[in-house]
Amino acid sequence: MFEKYLIEELINFHNHSFTIIDKHERILHFSRRAEEIFELEQKDVIGRPITEVFHKDKLIMLKSLRENRTIEKKMHLATPNVYVNIKSVPIIIDGKVEGAIVSEVNVTEEVKQKEEIKKLQGQVQTLSTNVRQLNNDESFRGIIYKSSEIESVKAQIQRAASTQANILITGETGVGKELFARAIHNLGNKEKEFIPINCGAIPGHLFESELFGYEKGAFTGANRQGNKGKVELAQGGTLFLDEIGEMPIDMQVKFLRVLQEKQYFKLGGTKEMNADFRLVSATNKKISDLLNGDDFRSDLLYRINVVNIHIPPLRKRPDDVESLFFYYLYSISEKYGIEMRYADQGLLQQLKTYHWPGNVRELINVVERLVIFSNDTKLNGEIFTQYLEEVGEDSAALYPQLPQEDIQLRDFVDQTEADYLKHTLEKYDNNIEQASKVLGISRPTLYAKIKKYEL
Asked: Assuming Cys at both sites, which of 80, 94, 216, 290 could form a disulfide with 296, CB separation 3.0 to 4.6 Å?
């Protein structure tokens, strides 16, 4: 009796599954961990032939018993959903095989991680191929996209770049307006200079000298040799005025004259200079706000906004979130010399659901944080949850909420689906095409669900 209880304690002592059979192939012991893995109870298997419980083709321990040998196997599929590392050993008493014992360690999570990593590697490989294809077109180098929205923007740029029309790029902060401005330059006159200037980063009293340059001795502290301004440096090339809505009002009058007459004076100069550049401007403000406000001249706006190219925010082009995420995951991991970690579906779903008010710039920052602070082979989703709390977002809102009272599963699933459909439709201004892409369903299916839930 003591030996029986001792064996029971020993086989349940470690976090391994143990099964012991006798020489007649009947089950003598079945550990609690074995119950969990195979979803069977001891009372239902003890004393039964093992071939009645498990298919004989999957029974490695029968080979140990019948062939008197130790067998080990890695990543053995024990059940349709469970992988184990398995070791089977014959039990020999007085030189005779009297039974066998098998030990299994559940490695399902490890297998899943490897599968996720393999999937990630495939995604990165596909993305790398796409990026190489994009980079073959040097004009659009660095613009990573998958969406039809950016494909449309690209077509507009290609058409506008073939002209000398002034172009105004609009879009929220962080969408990468300068990248698109460079694409315009590259398509038009890439052999010349691309000269960027951020109108919001220059103090008002220095703006004129920065834009037009100055002659020697023009003011106290000036370079004795004088200085070339951005307009002169952009001669024959592209002048990119980022955040042009921040240009001082007095400078707007002077710059309008430059656009009209193609002439200007350096600060402190008496010789009129020729202005020959392609103008590309950008702003994160709405054109209507610029027109209705008092800080920007409407006549200048009409002059710079001959062609308007709008870059949609990241939340309006969900197809790009995953592509951008994997691209920057790869490049930032390489930057820090850190082995790439995989992202599980939970984290990817959160990233796709989040509305990204800071657009691509915010996404890059989040990816960098994930790369730096994740320690295992998998990116730590808690890092993103902490980030959401920092910026005042409710991370729980990105997951289905549990009901407060008992309801049937079907009703809960229907309610969750209806809530998510409503949330997605509102997020994309009831744009059926965009919403169906995010939801991963066809437009007819989405219409049917809208009708079903009376949304």
From this structure: 290
Cα 166 off chain centre by: 34
pLDDT tens profile 238-294? 999 999 999 999 999 999 999 999 999 988 888 899 999 999 999 999 999 999 989
Q: Are 379 and 332 in contact (CB under 8 A)?
A: no
Taking every pair of C-alpha atoms in the chain, what is the biggest distance, in angstroms?
A: 113
- Return the sign of the alpha-carbon dihedral for residues 432, 434, 438, 443: positive
Nearest-angstrom CA–CA distance, 412 and 419? 10
Helix (H, G, I), strand (E, B) or coil at 302: helix
Q: Cα 301 vs. chain centroid, distance in angstroms? A: 35
Strand bridging mode 278-283 / 167-170: parallel
H-type alpha helices, 262-398: 287-292, 298-304, 319-336, 345-353, 359-373, 381-390
Domains of the chain are 2-106 (3.30.450.20), 148-314 (3.40.50.300), 409-453 (1.10.10)
Phi, psi of 387 (to 5 degrees): -60, -45
Contact 144, 323 (CB under 8 A): yes
Which segments within 31-111 are labelled E, that is strand? 71-79, 82-93, 96-106
